[in-house]
């Protein structure tokens, strides 16, 4: 164990976060996301039993968001006609605000299939037990100054 590191961050996840460089992306995927399929060229880390808000909050304590782009955090857009509420997005925005001065302004949306294509090029995908529909979130790493 280490001091000051959230316990939810496993040694495997910490190693991946440390290995990532500027502009690398990581996906925190909900339980319905095809993590293994999308992650064929990425590192897939299983965090079953954990939800995304807890992981997101812990990750952002050690992970700088990219300041060279407007939207270093992206959510998967709801498919038009899919009548799904996404209250978890407000939770994500509050967590981002806690760790980044841009707050909700740092959060964008990516169309569902474009999100899948972006996920295929992510450095890593964290497969969670998150039950919220459209709970997927992608982070782009910045630099530590």
From TrEMBL:
Q: Which GO terms describe its biological process?
A: fucose metabolic process
Which Gene3D superfamilies does the UniProt entry name for this protein?
Answer: RbsD-like domain (3.40.1650.10)
Instruction: Provide a Gene Ontology MF annotation, just one.
Output: fucose binding
Q: Does the keyword Isomerase apply?
A: yes
Note the PANTHER family from the entry.
FUCOSE MUTAROTASE
Pfam families for this protein: RbsD_FucU
What reaction is this protein's catalytic activity?
Answer: beta-D-ribopyranose = beta-D-ribofuranose; alpha-L-fucose = beta-L-fucose
Protein name as it appears in the record: RbsD or FucU transport
Keywords of the record: Isomerase
